[in-house]
Amino acid sequence: MVSEGREQSLYVFQDWKNNKGNFKSRIIMLLYRISSLIYRYRILRFIFFWYLLLYKFALGWLMNIGINSSAVIGKGLRIQYGFGTVIGSNTVIGKNCNIRQLTNISAKMKENGSYGRAPRIGDNVDIGISVVILGDVNIGNNVTIGAGSLITKDVEDNCVMVGSTATVLKKKYIISVEGT
Fold first, then answer.
1. Strand order through the sheet with 78-80
2. Where are the alpha helices (DSSP H) in the chain?
3. Taken in order 52, 2, 142, 108, is the CA torsion positive or negative?
4. What pLDDT shows up at residue 1?
5. 167-171 and 159-162: which strand pairing?
6. Among the listed residues 113, 112, 142, 111, the one whose alpha carbon sits nearest the alpha carbon of residue 127
7. Quick check: 74 and 102 in contact, CB under 8 A?
8. Residue 168 CB neighbour total at 10 angstroms
9. Which residues are listed as membrane-spanning (predicted)?
10. Which residues contact 98 (CB under 8 A, 6 or more apart)?
11. pLDDT tens sequence across 71-107
């Protein structure tokens, strides 16, 4: 499963290669990486508060996407189109994930108005169109989530999830054959 305190690289172009051919996604990820770097250090937040405001405006109003600066996103996130996608605060996303448009990944609001823990997504996860991942869930590595799925419970490694309240369609088994 996903480790809680995942480290982020300081290299702001770490998603450049994965978003080849999609200039909008390259710009989105570059702006996010800079805002995330600023957000991690209190002194930088104070000095560059204007950048964080411009970041919210540029992504929200101009590109119609929302990625919170406090989200922890691993190297190589690929955003395919991205229109209407929201990644909430404190969400953890692993390496080499793929997200399509109209996807919402965020914490669930409790009855008292506070928010619970945000989702934690493993490495090499492929998220389809119009997927909602809500609440304190762990999504394992090498998972595929079908279009229109709602994820509210933990997902094991190597699964394919589909449906309005997502269920396992199949379990992918990876067999490694070593030469003798």
1. 78-80, 98-100, 126-127, 144-145, 159-162, 167-171
2. 23-40, 42-47, 49-57
3. negative
4. 44
5. antiparallel
6. 142
7. no
8. 13
9. 43-63
10. 77, 78, 80, 125, 126, 127
11. 999 999 999 988 999 999 999 999 999 999 999 999 9
Specify the amino acid at residue 93: I
Name, in order, each residue with C-beta under 8 angstroms of 130's C-beta and a sequence gap of 6 or more: 101, 102, 103, 147, 148
Retrieve residue 29's tokens.
């990820």
Question: Where on the phi/psi map is residue 61: left (φ > 0), alpha (ψ -120 to 50), or beta?
Answer: alpha
Q: Which residues, in sequence order, are CB contacts of 161 under 8 Å at separation 6+?
A: 143, 144, 145, 146, 149, 151, 155, 167, 168, 169
Tokens of 161: 């999830």
- Residue 2 pLDDT level (bands cut at 50, 70, 90): very low
| Nearest Cα to Cα of residue 121 among 100, 101, 145, 102 | 145
The whole-angstrom separation of Cα 118 and Cα 9 is 21
Q: So what's the pLDDT on residue 28?
A: 93
What is the pairing mode between strands 72-73 and 92-93? parallel
Over 50: is that where the pLDDT of 3 sits?
Answer: no
